[in-house]
Amino acid sequence: MCMAFCVGRDKRMNYQECIAYLENVCPRGSSGGKERTAIMAELMGNPQDTLSIIHVAGTNGKGSTSAVIESVLRHAGYKVGLFTSPHLERYEERIQINRQPIPEAEFTAIMSHLIEDVIPKAMADGMSHPGAFGLLTLAAFQYFAGKTDFVVLEVGLGGWLDPTNIIASPVLSVITPLSLEHCHILGDTIEQIAKEKAGIIKPGIPAITAPQEERALAVLKVDALEKQSPLVCLYKDTLKPVTTNLVGNYQQMNCNTALAAVQNLIERGVVQVSDQQIADALCHVSWPGRMEYFDLDEGKAILLDGAHNPAGITGLAENLRDLYSDREIILFLSILDDKEQVTMLKEILPQASAVVLTRPEHDDRAQHWMQIEQYIHEIAPNCPCRMYDNDKAGLKQEVERLQEGQMLCVTGSLYLISDCRSYLLRELL
Fold first, then answer.
1. Residue 204 Cα distances to 66, 264, 272, angstroms
2. Are 92 and 102 in contact (CB under 8 A)?
3. How far apart are CA 12 and CA 320, in angstroms?
4. 3-class SS at 90?
5. pLDDT tens, position by position, 192-234
6. What fold is seen in the domain 292-428?
7. I need a labelling partner for 53 at 20 to 30 A (CA). Which of 194, 261, 344, 393 fits?
8. Cα–Cα distance, 81 to 100 (Å, whole number)
9. Global confidence as pTM
10. pLDDT at 366
């Protein structure tokens, strides 16, 4: 399939062709792509080895924690690369410098080089086809090289086998809260999950961990000890209140984790950051699609939150209780078929007066709503359900149905957040 794109062309691929390649040719998923990514990086001259990287893994809070670290370093005057996933609207969002996405022209140039030059050479030597996430990781390394002081690098899935983990010597490793997710890939116990995430800890390199349950923390401690990596452990009862514009109780934990990371860099003389710069950064940090609130006319509102696993949904339910108890909550929901649907529904349904089921337009992994509806009727028999085959059409109708005092909470899938946020901003607001 690759060669069909690469042979007999008189000019480089354009932007649309690069996107089509990522979405239609590359195998899905980011797991297990570490070896292939390393092979291609070698052919590119290993641009990742020139970068000062803060590597971030975990189950929940990776994006927010990464955003806070980036914001602090940027407000301190550093040029900071940020690599995250997934994107909400365009692939370029995943690769940013000082919160500005990679320009389309540069994205296209790097990606076409990877597709037309690097992949054919690697596959000629026997390598299997790389996944899209591995290619995006390499594109980020190439773009950041020579342009950044630091790079905040978010893991895609897991840790040890993740394509981002080809880096040999980050300046710091950070692990956010762990819980069971992607069990068919990462393992079905919290200890197995922790072992996989601990793969980003490198020998002799300091690491920071957010508060963890005891079994997960024990694994991280053993791994760090074996690698002689100084491990800074945060605990829930020692977290300090933080003033930030990020909404949600769990953001306190994310901010504390990020600030512990920054403090470690300060103490080691890696960066210079003032208290005022930290305060400014916390007041200006943003992370779209996470507890993102839109106030509509006549006392109506929309809340977008990318919670997509039991731990994330539990945090969302807590925030709905604590922050929006005066609102009638209508859930606009989609859950991918590899998630723990029943567990998630049991957490969130008590906060909802009704549920609207749909599916992201461009993702075929959304659990069929007939099954979800059955679960809802078993868990909350009196909770009304409505269903839409098209998420954007459904969102439009549900916004029109909103009454004073009601809030539409869009959640369950980052793919759903992506579709709805784009449509909301362009068509409904």
1. 22, 14, 22
2. yes
3. 49
4. coil
5. 999 999 999 999 999 999 999 999 999 999 999 999 999 999 9
6. Protein-Tyrosine Phosphatase; Chain A (3.90.190)
7. 194
8. 9
9. 0.90
10. 53
